[in-house]
Amino acid sequence: MENEILEPVSPTGQYFTSSVMSLSIIAVFELEFPIDQSRFDTLLQNVFLPINPRFSSLMVKDKNGKKHWKKVEVDIQEHIKIPNFPRGKSPEFYEDCLSEYLSKISLEQFPESRALWEFHIINYPTKFAAGNLVFKLHHSLGDGYSLMGAVLSCSQRADNPQLPLTFPLLNNKKSKSRKINIFRNNILSRAFDSVYDFGWSVLKSTVLEDDKTPIRSGDDGVEFRPTTITTMVFSVDQIKKVKASLHVTINDVICGALFLGIRLYIKSTEHDQSNANPTAVVLLNTRNINGYKSISEMVKPDGESLWGNQFALLHVSVPKLVFSDPIDPLSFVLEAQKVIKRKRNSAAVILTSKLLETLRKLRGPEVTAEYIHKTLKNTSLTISNIIGPVERMALLNQPIKGMYFMNVGVPQSLTVTILSYMGQLRIALGTENDLIDAPKFRQCVQDAFDMIFKAAIPFPSI
Known about the structure:
By secondary structure, the chain is α+β, with helices and mostly antiparallel strands. The chain has 14 helices and 16 strands. Helices cover 38% and strands 22% of the residues. The strands form three sheets. The chain has a seven-stranded mixed beta sheet, with helices on both faces. A six-stranded mixed beta sheet has the order 9-16-15-12-10-11, sandwiched between helices. Helix 8 crosses helix 9 (250-268) and helix 9 (250-268) packs across helix 14.
């Protein structure tokens, strides 16, 4: 086993473990009751590790410098971390401890001698949970979709473990039909959009850089600075009301609220930069699927829902705040819809993927990683989302009342992640310390959503 070579590391996995970039995912599970930690080593050994060989593998280089996954024996206890905080304190105190702990582990690198994941048990009551379980996994193991699938394989429905977890339905057939019609009826327009979006994406990844603003320091090494992770919760039912009123998607509503919140935050600072042009990088899952597949399906070489990193990067400019009286909050949702829909329907995503592949073949993975690093560093924030189950989950019969995740190691001052769970949308904000006032930024996003909801639903039913 010690000498077994499994498989080459995927190109994206090589980019995320290069000399210029190391990205990880932190997933936090808030438990309803105090944690019984006695059986988690068995769960990790017997359920988690067999999910994918990468969870019990090291990344090694062969004599030609190519990276491979090498199977090793895993000592589960080396991967389980249990911090000690002072006993007998308030939930607010432990909330601060959790925040500092997440900031600390987000900056730590995985030892090269161990598989690239950790499991942290924080058995202290915070404001939102009786205890917290934290998975930290390197992004080379897979993207958010893959890793969510792995976590789901370790869990079950809290109300009835015999029934499967279910997920919100996606109208893929309608979306696919819409794309075909757009392609047929607007070939010239689509071609122009594709060339324009691809050209702009290349410029943003090379020479065009966002302005320095209250949400972007633009400094080298920003990914090594401490961050604060704060979260906020929105009702999916409320978002659906806005969606139905404006005939947009849930993602359009959330992006609109985030973009308006960014403008409100920038406007509220001492150095108002209303004319600045922040750019968001929106991560798009490129799998043609509806919901999560079983792990056995995900790891099939010819499966439609392949394990790994399968996403594209969309550059989306944050709309400017027009100082009309009153401010038009709905314009941010409608502009987000227009831009994201156009970019989804253009071929820029495919062209960018081909560019990265060509760059890797001609110049190698390190140069390609530098290109991706600059793509992120030249912009102001990333936005990524994952669909979670509709029902309450449980790990070892311990109900999970809430969960969120964060991408760490990203060379940006602001990172936004979105996760749906049990009819709620949990937004996590990763903000650079000493640059972004996290509570104030969070409130600006909340105010932005309230403005959008009030404008879209002026007379809510009682």
